[in-house]
Amino acid sequence: MNSLPAIERFQSNNGVRIYRIPLEVFTNGFIGYAYMVLDAGLPTLVDCGSGFGRSNQDLLDGISALRTDFGERLDLSDIKHILVTHGHKDHFGGLERAGVPAEPRQIMIDMYGFAKKHVRSVNVDFTLDEDVAFEGMQFVHTPGHCPGQVCIILGDVMLSADHILSRTTPHQAPESITNYTGLGHYRDSLRKVEKLDGIALALGGHEDPVRDVYGRIHEIQQSHERKLNRILDIIKQIGQPCTIYEITEVMYPGKTGYDTLLAIYLYQHGYLSVANLDEVELEDNPALRYLAV
Ligand SMILES: [Zn+2]
Predict the structure, then answer these.
(1) How many A from CA of 68 to the centre of ligand 1?
(2) Neighbours of 190 (CB within 10 A)
(3) How far is the CA of 71 from the centre of ligand 1 (A)?
(4) Distance (Å) from CA 233 to ligand 1 centroid
(5) Segment 15-30, tens digit of pLDDT
(6) I need a surface site. Which of 83, 97, 169, 251 has the fewest CB within 10 A?
(7) Which of 166-175, 205-214, 283-292 reaches the highest mean pLDDT?
């Protein structure tokens, strides 16, 4: 069994104590974090793992370690709120299994209702509003990676969920599959966080703490910019109307995945046109062929 990273303690400039509790959220060793937030109102757990494999046990062990290793007088029954940053399994699955923690008030963040299809197994007590602080926390709706995702601001610390991670640029699925996902929303959400002043530390749902939040946002923006330009170049290079599949073969030889769908973003934002609209009218579901505008 892999050993987990250590629990880490962070403190915001307004005195909130934030404990990062590592969990093996998928049995392949994939690590995600739950955060125990203390002294921002009532004790609040942010995200709670997947409920798979050892994820729940890791969470229980982590919470007891706050007592034994950090001297926090905290029992499971003291946890009054659970906030889920977004409706992906590795962040809320732990809610579905009994016993974690005792009689919690389960607050599922579902700000604009678009995340519903992802969260059907969890009861929503009430929704949160961006303009209204809750227990000393401010919420920022950051759709893109997941429709209902929120980042949580605690003084100069931001719990950034999977919106801003230290190494990975979070995957994006096209909005044609799910409302409020997709690169367009994601880039808007990056700009939204970029405009917030004074964030000294971002703690994500995975990977390392990010100290230079604004620099990291810039890196992620550049990375998407490069990919989008690459797609435009490939289309010009192919020189005739081509499908997303054909673009993908050049961009990621031998691979398919979410990135392959980036061309849809370029189309939706007016960089590409569909060259075979006549076929689209005649056939049921022809492959769309794109051309650079
Ligand atoms: Zn995640």
Answers:
(1) 28
(2) 20
(3) 29
(4) 32
(5) 999 999 999 998 888 8
(6) 97
(7) 205-214
pTM of the model: 0.81
Distance 92 CA to ligand 1 centre (A): 10
Place of tokens 């029992």: 75
Q: Phi and psi dihedrals of 291, rounded to 5? A: -135, 145
The per-residue DSSP string of 163-206 comes to: TS-SS-------TTTSTTBSHHHHHHHHHHHHTS----EEEESS
293 vs 77 pLDDT, higher one = 77
What is the pLDDT averaged over residues 60-82? 94
Angle, vertex CA 87, rays to CA 133 and CA 169, nearest 5: 95
Whole-number Å distance, alpha carbon 227 to ligand 1 midpoint, is 22
Q: What is the pLDDT of residue 255?
A: 59
Residue 133's alpha-carbon distances to 152, 174, 262, in angstroms, are: 10, 31, 35
| Amino acid occupying residue 143 | P
Ligand 1 centroid, distance to 260 Cα (angstroms): 21
Burial of 129: CB neighbours in 10 Å, binned 0-12, 13-18, 19+? exposed
- Which pair of structure tokens corresponds to residue 109? 């963040």
- Burial category of 2 from C-beta neighbours within 10 Å (exposed 0-12, middle 13-18, buried 19 and up): exposed
Q: What is the token pair recorded at 171?
A: 């995957």
Who contacts 158 (Cβ-Cβ below 8 Å, separation ≥6)?
Answer: 140, 151, 152, 164, 193, 196, 199, 201, 202, 203, 213
How many angstroms does the Cα of residue 163 sit away from the middle of ligand 1?
Answer: 9
Residue 113 banded pLDDT, cuts 50, 70, 90: very low
Cβ atoms of residues 82 and 97 within 8 Å: no
CA–centroid distance, 153 to ligand 1, in Å, is 18
Q: Check pLDDT > 60 for residue 266.
A: yes
